[in-house]
Here is the input.
Amino acid sequence: MSDRLNVLFITADQWRGDCLSALKHPAVKTPHLDALAADGVLFANHFANAVPCAPSRASLHTGLYLQNHRACTNGTPLDARHTNWALEARKIDYDPVLIGYTDTANDPRELQDDSPWVKTYEGPLPGIRPLAMMGTWPGPWADDLADKGYPLPDDLRQTYGLREDGPDYEHGRSRPRPLIYPLKDNDTTYQIEKCMEYMGAAKDPFIMHLSLLRPHPPWVASEPYASMYDPAVLPAYVRAPNVEIEGAQHPWLQHQLANRLYRAPDNDKKQRRMKAVYYGLMSEVDAALGRLFAFLKESGLYDKTLIIFTSDHGEQMGDHWLIGKCGYFDGSYHIPLIIRDPRADQTRGTRISAFTENVDIMPTMLSAIGAPVPPHCDGAKLDPFLETARTPATWRTEAHWEFDFRDPTDETAEQSLGLTLHQCTMNIIRSEKYKYVHFTGLPPLFFDLEKDPGELTNRATDPAYMSLVLEYAQKMLSWRMMHDEATLTHVTLTDDGPLARESARY
Here is the structure.
């Protein structure tokens, strides 16, 4: 597939992979994404390669595992020597543009001391041209609100969560308090309208990265989505009977549950309110994307545009008594992926069960626009699934991810767990049946996902599982060895000059 296409690359931040009605979620309704899946390909076992936002997006944009790009945390600079899909697209005369954010901490060695990007991890991905840069700071959206006469908080970072006055659901209100800004003027609507404005005026084939904040916190929605889901009748949590039993699973989990930033609220009504609004924000994003897809069809762009919808990571939302994204549980890493390729007539409406990962997005986009895929990419093109829906014989049989829980500004994890800064890391390999979690300096974990899909019982020391634990530890080692940094490993210098021989990852 090498025809010159438009590309609409959409990320919705912190979207769990099970939260699509096309996948039979018991509550969340996503009719427009369901329709996109029916007209494209739905990847049901798609996983992020890291959390939180910046490390995950570094993998998404560079096609590299965390072990190679080394942007370990929010704020760790992405080394300028790494290329990305935007830089590669520029080489063949595309103009990659951004509405939203890429959470890229830029390499300070490439910046002047007075550059604004030295003081934030929410810089732009190298090679991308921001049209409406939004992240923690709402920037142009806040300006738009001010122009329309809306009130703004003194700290503009609070704009995303500015709620109506009065008590909230856990204090007696019948439904969660909504955002003060109406749907027609909120942040998601603003970004969708800017996206349509740009695409409608574009003269040349475009690559648009639409990076939506929602359903990321703060979990505050405009009406009618603040009230769409009743907090009292939501699906149950997946977790042990209490925090103490949950934490007994592993020292890292006990440490994490002691951190108030990751501990689910003790007030069940508050947790239910957060979950209801989380679902509401998903349905709001779905409706907004429905408008965007309708615009593409009405403007004649739909059948000229590759559409990719995914997320950077998931959300615990009370499961295992955690909120946010962290650790090794599927809830933090299983994310949606839908791709609609206008040329792929033979695979419309198919569902892929093979394991795919965010490192596969960059090779797939570059292949679609006819750009060479850098040979050191850790991911692989998803073309075989889009063209025939068949899984290549050599395709991966597990998903892989990493979590680096170091904090250069805080030694709490090191002191609590008896680790060094560089030992604050874990690697995960997850197959259809089993999951193995390897820590640096802490005991491993092993889950039998067929018998224990909730990941509640650690089998790492169970004699009946010893051979499997060894097998998966070996798989983990082989995976890391196969994906050691590989920028020049396919090149050799000879009497005739440099010679190169590339090899597929799978």
Notes: The chain has one domain: 6-500. The radius of gyration is 22 Å. Residues 268-298 form the longest helix (31 residues).
